Fold this protein.
Amino acid sequence: MNLTLLRSDGGFLTLPDRTSLLVSRENGGNLVVNPPRPVWERSGGCVNYWEAGNWALNDEAEPKGPKRAESYRQMHLHLLGRSRASTDPSWKWGESPRFPAFAEKQSWAARFERLTAAECYQIVSRADELLRTKYGLLSGQIARWSPCDACGYPSPVAIGESPHICAECGRAPT
């Protein structure tokens, strides 16, 4: 389960599930931006991107078999940090990143660490500040957020919620 860190009228900033990481925190970290409503493709703008969501269309992805893009692909934007000190050959500074094949994605992610609660707090604090000061979003356009009382990761706060427990900490153990 991705952990929502910040929510606004413009979308959701999430921390990927541990089994979905593309790069470890020490090599730059991985966050994901999702639009505020389901979108299966992007259009317009000047962004350096590739068309993410291809793994959702893999014949081995659930439900197994061929799929129509409009029904299964969910447009999203990975924010992948880069580090000059990276020792991972897939994340070498000055090179384009390399990604695993679908069948290798979980073993690939298993070697990575998520961004820490403190790192995410700094990112969310700065994103909140920029959304308000540079992009002019008003308080009603950005959900209130605070650190989870259990794990410390920032997450949106429901009105009257106390104690504040994020969705990840609040789900029943499996």
In short: The longest helix spans residues 117-133. The first strand starts at residue 3 and ends at 8. Strands lie at 3-8, 11-15, 30-34, 77-80, 145-147, 154-156. The mean pLDDT is 88.
